[in-house]
């Protein structure tokens, strides 16, 4: 027991407090540090309420995606009224794409301030995971910070999952700092990736803690696929490009901090950066620390990593906990408002590397919607970094679905990152450097360097002989390749010459 005032309760007791329509801020940025037992209990309550003929849905606000115990369970119980800012759960995604759950896609750095400003409605409960809690309300968080600090500050009540999978020695891994709101905001005083500006503990008003649920549930982080020849080649291309920039003196010789997205391509890119002898040991100022970072840290290729979550598969997290002193000197977890802060990204000169679903020949990128309609995950932190990066890079395989989709298209079917923010596109075919190029020069660069050879002629046919305008778009045919995929499941062989 923490104190007489803070009761230890069951997850079902906690769920009982939650009412239909409540908005809840849950901890979690990826499955790392996500609440698990209380959302499962809320899902059980929702099912019971629905069986009794009563409505029961809650607003679910988190740091980013979470694990199956949160998004999966609540979606299967049909208990999600709205969801923001990011998700990657297949059940929830299906509900969102059927129009059964409202989802609004937000830049992750902006979620905490939007919650503080009241833009998301009144947050009733913060439901968070902790490694330890004191009577005075000092909380050591677990494998992520995300927006947990903000949720605790603005919620009426706090419910804590005290998880004994995480050692008390985690204290010192986190750096909790929340900016003042306008018109009183000052600069975020971070001048290097490893700079500490806040507190190792999250301080909350202990009278707001409505109860503690004791748990032992591990983070629900899946493993990674071994990189295949395509992701391997993308990684090598990114590393070659950065080595070339270094040699040309366009990147300082000490190198710059790296931000890297999540997933298999991101893992392969980091591996390739570590393996390239021309690239010196570097720092990361990113949002997610994945398995590959830990290996590279061990080998001395990564000197320091600042992020908001430690998204590690169970065996790698175990390795980190067994040698926590080593990693605590090299890893720092910050609130997502700070890890992704545009001001800091611009100041530190971060090289951003994120993944596209598709890119167009002008340099616009779609990161979120398949064929323009169906949400995949969300924009995540990719916009926070891309728009403010020293060099912004997007990677993707040149084709999807066995070659039937070209990821290089005449115009993206949904826009997340515009041509004004995207500087470099990399596929397994090559590197398109868009800096200082006009639209036609960019189109040639992207098609010739990044498109799959099977699609190059038809893409050239779209713009080669069109002389009309600065960006010679032809609206009648701009989505002909997408249309062909919708009709016959293949973008190959589409006649784009009709555009002339
Ligand atoms: O589907 O497995 O059913 O075939 O999309 O594609 O190539 O496995 O790549 O897992 O890295 O995901 C952009 C979604 C890429 C992700 C995205 C299909 C493809 C496959 C996945 P299948 P891959 P990844 C940090 C920064 C946005 C947020 C972000 C993402 C599936 O990286 O969500 O960057 N990014 N956040 O077949 C139709 C196309 C397609 C396509 C791929 N053009 N058309 N389907 N697919 N291209 C994260 C955070 O902020 C926490």
Automatic annotation (TrEMBL):
Keywords: Hydrolase. Residues 318-462 form the Acetyl-CoA hydrolase/transferase C-terminal domain. One of its GO terms (biological process) is acetate metabolic process. Pfam families: AcetylCoA_hyd_C (PF13336), AcetylCoA_hydro (PF02550). GO terms for molecular function: acetate CoA-transferase activity; acetyl-CoA hydrolase activity. InterPro entries: AcetylCoA_hyd_C (IPR026888), AcetylCoA_hyd_C_sf (IPR038460), ActCoA_hydro (IPR046433), ActCoA_hydro_N (IPR003702), NagB/RpiA_transferase-like (IPR037171), Succinate_CoA_transferase (IPR017821). The active site is at residue 287. Residues 9-214 form the Acetyl-CoA hydrolase/transferase N-terminal domain. CoA binds at residues 357, 377, 381, 401. Belongs to the acetyl-CoA hydrolase/transferase family. NCBIfam families: YgfH_subfam. This is Acetyl-CoA hydrolase. It comes from Coraliomargarita sinensis. The lineage of its organism: Bacteria, Pseudomonadati, Verrucomicrobiota, Opitutia, Puniceicoccales.
